[in-house]
Specification:
Shape: globular
Number of helices: 10
Strand order of the largest sheet: 3-5-4
CATH architecture of the domain at 1-65: Orthogonal Bundle
CATH class of the domain at 1-65: Mainly Alpha
């Protein structure tokens, strides 16, 4: 077969060697739309170019370093047509190194099993598993099949248990599935934040080498506080808006009744 101009083509074994990702995982990424389908020859042999190496590296960075689930990673990739410039990817890689460093310092809990997490929070194991099904938390599984939850997921479960204790119970109609929209909205927000963060800082010379690490480490905490206050403000304003609309409707109804 004659060599063609363009990206260098490689077989699956070479792609596995270059990326350190198993063949089954690569096929899974393709089936989920995280990677494009490879080029095939007449002999049904698939070939992969260098873009697959870069794309798999990006997937692993977003998954391992940013703790983003695959559905959000797919969203990031699809919204950028699968393309992030080298400078944008470099911003994400640099920021992620410092972000993971910051997360390690904030770590409060060692990994918990399902039973340990249930005992700690008072949540039934089924509720915790349902939180996973709704993509609110996630776990990892070892060879034995034992589920383990990391620090951030334990904190989320604790917060959810507190929500239950103040009265948002199943008996009152607050199933776990009813909290899925929070996860979906925040996932969308995370996608936009990561893209915006990379694009704003890409191709810009940062005179202060400490700026990006500081931004990655301290910025999230400041943004979380900002979002918390903003959420509270918008929630109160929405309640007031509904209330005023209802009262105005009642007032208008009374006036029209008097005119009859």
């Amino acid at each position: 077969m004659k060599k063609k101009n363009g990206p260098k083509a490689m077989k699956m074994n070479e792609l596995v060697r270059r990326t350190g990702v198993r063949k089954a995982t690569i096929h899974f990424y393709i089936s989920q739309g995280l990677l494009p389908k490879p080029r095939k020859t007449e002999r049904n042999m698939a070939y992969y170019d260098e873009t697959y190496v870069d794309r798999i590296a990006l997937i692993k960075e977003l998954q391992v370093r940013w703790f983003l689930p695959l559905n959000i990673i797919k969203d990031v990739i699809s919204r950028t047509d699968g393309k992030l410039s080298p400078s944008e990817l470099d911003v994400i890689k640099t920021g992620s190194r410092w972000l993971i460093h910051s997360e390690e310092h904030r770590r409060k809990y060692k990994p918990h099993t399902l039973n340990q997490l249930s005992l700690k929070t008072g949540l039934p194991a089924e509720d915790i598993l349902d939180m996973e099904r709704q993509e609110i938390i996630s776990s990892t599984q070892g060879k034995s099949g034992t589920r383990t939850y990391r620090d951030i997921d334990i904190r989320i479960a604790e917060a959810f248990a507190a929500i239950r204790k103040v009265g948002f119970t199943k008996e009152r109609g607050f199933d776990v599935s009813g909290f899925r929209f929070h996860s979906d909205l925040i996932s969308m927000l995370a996608v936009e934040e990561v893209k915006d963060f990379a694009r704003r800082l890409a191709d810009r010379s940062l005179d202060d080498p400490k700026f990006l690490p500081k931004l990655a480490e301290k910025g999230m905490e400041s943004i979380n506080v900002y979002i918390s206050h903003l959420h509270r403000k918008k929630f109160v304003e929405t309640v007031q808006s509904f209330l005023e609309s209802k009262l105005n409707g009642i007032s208008a109804g009374k006036k029209s009744g008097k005119g009859k």
